[in-house]
Amino acid sequence: MNNNSKLETEELRTCLHIHLYHPDQANCPLYHNLPLNQPYKMDAEDPLRLGRDGQTCIFVLNDTSVSRKQLSIQAYRKAGSTFLSFMIQNMSQKVKLVVGGSELRYLERAELDDKVLLRFGRYQLLIWQEPGDSANTFEVLFETCNTPSSQELGIDVPCKLPVMDTGVPWRNLENGAPASQEPLESDETVVLV
Predict the structure, then answer these.
(1) Which of 73, 88, 96, 128 is the most buried (most CB within 10 A)?
(2) pTM of the model
């Protein structure tokens, strides 16, 4: 059997892309136990466990603020579907897990959306799914981000001053104080005083 035939018959696996961010990641070896930037094959029946304890978790974060067992992600199939879906469970009694804005307490579960932001402690994990055909296996791909995933998604980003078409920041000041909170309508001409 040549390599082309082998590639044609091989099933495409669902891939969970996990983008990691922690504000101290440049200074601390938080991820040195993770297989960064290389897909890791998992059996669909085995849960993906992330935490501090290398004996109970497949993926280990080198951080004492992380629980021994922080979270678990389990693959499953919905009735009548050939595609894998995923559930997440908070395994920590001390650290809350926020999934897409909803808090999960100890042992609570939630279904993962196709793209979702997870937060626990000072960590942010952006997880997105790349669908595949295999019902028995999936892949996990860990990657680091230089900026918080919440910033990429526009969550918790402070609003900036609006800028008029002239490129001048909009300020409605009268004697140094805002004159009105309501927007002013004007035509195309701008008069600068």
Answers:
(1) 88
(2) 0.72
